[in-house]
Design a protein that fits this description.
heterodimer, A: 138 residues, Rossmann fold, 5 helices, B: 342 residues, alpha/beta, 3 domains, 7-stranded parallel beta sheet
């Protein structure tokens, strides 16, 4: 039986050294409850590990949680490595303690929307769903 | 589907493998043609399956075993299946957490699969995904089942060697016998062997295996009747004189410190040698191929059965007939089948 309804596959990752994974786990669970297939890789991921996993898992989206302040390094690095690996179709998004001016700077570097503290999970889910719907109708 | 996918796949491009797996997993249009294109060479890889209850340490063991094969310079493909939520259709695939040491090794490819409603411990398309990995050229393929416990029997149709992983907390050997694990194991592993009860569980499994094999417990003092310890060897009932038979080993491991892993790798190697020497490998592969053909035929028949307007109309009419008291689901089904097989 052909399944025309392709599942949305999302890699949820915690790059870098901060060990605060509550946010990543909340997002991973709510994405699952929204019907996504979530690959959760756990803590302390390097950008290389994240990109390698994203390619092997053929995900649509990489969602990263960064609370260490290293977002200006980590998000662009993952974007560049994904592009180099031929995965330029993958959305890089995420959240954490990120000033709005940095969010804008990152958006200019090809990063998707970033979500700060207090975000409703439904907003993040809607964002991913809309992005996918837009991609797949192109 | 991009047209040069088979070419890039044969050139060994990892994204092409990843995409071929997605196409297979989603059963997207044309996936059977793609598989036909990719699978001409037939099975080459040595396939090892791990099954057992959740939290037994399957992923951790699998990571250690994969490392051992990397040390032998084998390229390793890994498929780890986790359950799909029956409520949302989503899944949280967390097996990679235990495999972080392998994450950037170019000789290792890990793919997480959601079970997507299948209940046999694997996803509906896992067997086909394994074939795709095999065709990509991995020497070794490791597959880990969902781990819900009592219905993980599909693994036997997917792997050459099945390793059943239990822990002292799994309960006694009767639990394993109930769950049908006795029939499917080629190798038993009692993981977390540093915990109390590991040795006892291993012993119970050994005894249960001997019981199944119809052997007397010749090294155990008898409670009743003849104590075989005191019977001369030549008078003892035939034990395992049949050298063709595989003696299922029961090993103890500890995935935290790696204890017992060399023994496990050696046992998998021994089983491989036995598979090849006894002709069992050919038999298992033949059985698998047969099953694959049947799967494809069944899938297509199911699709064809409800594809025609005529059949769907007859079904609607039949249901209305049943409501009027003219016939039963069985008579309507018989009429539909007559229509289909005409």
């Amino acid at each position: 039986m052909t399944d025309p309804q392709r599942r949305i596959r999302v890699l949820v990752a915690k790059p870098g050294l901060d060990g605060h994974d509550r946010g990543a786990k909340v997002i991973a669970s709510s994405f699952r409850d929204a019907g996504f297939e979530v690959i959760y890789t756990g803590l302390h991921q390097t950008p290389e590990m994240i990109v390698s996993a994203a390619v092997q898992e053929d995900v649509d989206v990489v969602a990263m949680s960064v609370l260490s302040g290293a977002h200006m390094t980590l998000f662009p690095r993952v974007r560049v490595l994904l592009d180099e690996a031929g995965a330029d179709h993958v959305l890089v998004t995420g959240g954490g303690i990120i000033p709005e001016s940095d969010m804008e700077a990152l958006e200019a570097l090809g990063i998707g929307r970033l979500f700060g503290p207090g975000t409703r999970t439904t907003d993040a889910i809607a964002y991913v769903k809309d992005w996918i719907a837009h991609q797949r109708t192109q | 589907m991009s047209t040069d996918l088979p070419t890039r796949f044969r050139d060994g491009k990892v994204p092409a493998l990843a995409r071929a797996i997605s196409i297979t997993e989603d059963q997207r249009d044309g996936f059977e043609e793609l598989l036909h294109e990719l699978l001409r060479a037939g099975p080459q890889a040595k396939r090892v399956g791990l099954t057992g209850p959740p939290g037994a340490g399957k992923s951790s063991l699998l990571a250690l075993v994969a490392n051992a094969y990397r040390a032998l310079d084998e390229r390793v493909g890994i498929v780890a299946v986790d359950p799909t939520s029956p409520y949302s259709g989503g899944a949280l695939l967390g097996d990679r957490i235990r495999m972080n040491d392998l994450a950037t090794d170019p000789g290792i490819f890990i793919r997480s699969m959601a079970s997507r409603g299948s209940l046999g411990g694997l996803a509906t398309t896992t067997k086909e995904v394994l074939d795709v990995m095999d065709a990509f050229g991995f020497e070794r393929i490791l597959v880990e089942t969902v781990g819900v416990g009592q219905t993980e029997l599909e693994i036997t149709a997917a792997a050459d060697t099945v390793v059943v992983v239990l822990v002292p907390e799994s309960g006694d050997a009767v639990q394993a016998m109930k769950a049908g694990l006795m029939e499917i194991a080629d190798i038993f592993v009692v993981n977390k062997a540093d915990r109390p009860g590991a040795g006892r569980l291993a012993k119970e499994i050994r005894q249960a295996l001997h019981l199944r094999a119809g052997e007397a417990l010749h090294d155990v003092p008898a409670h009743h009747g003849v104590d075989l310890q005191n019977v001369p060897l030549e008078l003892r009932p035939e034990s395992s004189g049949d050298s063709e038979r595989w003696e299922i080993p029961v090993l103890e491991t500890n995935a935290l410190d790696g204890a017992g892993i060399p023994d496990l790798v050696a046992a998998i190697g021994d089983h491989r040698a036995w598979l090849e020497g006894s002709g069992e490998l050919a038999a298992r592969r033949r059985h698998r191929t047969r099953g694959r053909v049947q799967d494809v035929v069944q899938r297509e028949m199911r699709r064809v059965a409800w594809a025609s307007d005529e059949v769907r109309r007859s079904l609607d009419e039949g249901v209305r007939g049943i409501e009027r008291g003219e016939g039963t689901p069985y008579s309507v089904a018989r009429d539909l089948l007559a229509l289909l097989l005409r």
